[in-house]
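Pilot study result, target chain (423 residues):
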Amino acid sequence: MRNIAPRTHDRHVGSLPSARGFVPALEGLRAVAAFGVLTTHVAFQTASNTGSAVGRVWGRMDLAVAVFFALSGFLLWRGHALHARRDLPGSARPAGNYLRSRLVRIMPAYLVVVAAAFLLIPRNALSPAPAWLANATLTQVFVPDSLVEGLTHAWSLSVEMSFYLALPLLWWALLRLRGPAARWRIPVIAAVGALSLGWALVPWYALGLPESLNDQLLPPAFASWFAAGMVLAELAAAPPGRLAALARHRRSRWGWWALAAVAFLATTVPGWFTEGFVHPSGPEFAARTALGAVVAFCLLAPITLAPHGQRFAVLDSAVMGALGRWSYGVFLWHVLVLHFAFQIAFVPLFSGQMLLVWLVTAAVSTVVAAASYALVEVPSGRWFSRSARGPREDPRTAGPADPRTEGQAAASPAQTSPASVST
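Predicted structure:
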């Protein structure tokens, strides 16, 4: 397909490196968030997530889900943002091709875990067929009583899939905001994200929502987290402004990350937020969700708005890059691994010894995740890359797809515990 010259002549549009291509530090951040979520689950099942300041920190590391949702918002929206800033016609990517890539990225490895949870945990066989169908199709947030053991964390993947499906509609809704009008895109996205915080304040059950459904698990409740990443995508595509300038100095990252830490620690204050995995009140859920958006935005901002040549020594490292590539597998498998980790470590449930259980869970999950990446995720990605070329394209001239860019563009699914927002 021939390239269409951009209508805009502003050479600063899309000049930040994160506007397109691979950003190594995002892989490292993805790894940090994945193991943060693992830590929260271990803390809960060892009864180490409440009762002390440190315990409350472990218990609230499930806010890493905000980072994953924002990563999805950023990585999947940046192409559309750049397309609009360049005032190009049509869509940045065909919807059919995009949706197929999402299914290929998410479903093969996920279905392996679904099968494993069914086969390895005998009492799961007693779960009704609708629950298994809901889990297999990632519709469990819309189906009552469908969270089964070993897969309870996949509710967030269900929310993520809803965002994937809605993305082409979101692009269409902002189609007219391109070229000179693209300056309105950030205010519109930010406003929608802010308005979504009111979701938890609406009396949905009084309005007819079945009580068997959890209103705090439904996708609109998390729109602000996706919006945080989408706003960053717009900023990365736009000519660098004041916010990008604040992120340019290599030491400014510590200011961003300090603000993220303050917002995170605020969620651990007992007088403000309930400890542990409980169903919070509407106002508490809205406040915690807002702080989660701040955490995600501030963690991602110095990376996504960084200029050319700026490095992040730890996040850019080869070790963190590998863990980032395996992070989807860590998410998929760690709850099932944790189920058996107590037997491996000879530790009863809810009896402490968090460090020992954490080490076992992290080690086994990492090994299984690496195998999943090599045996399932990479082969399925290669299949899609070949099939996406079409019969008329010569693979000898098409050039190999960059697996790093393909993997990052996939925006690894979000990860957290359902108990953090449900009973």
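One observation from the pilot: The longest helix spans residues 354-389. A full batch analysis is planned for the follow-on phase.
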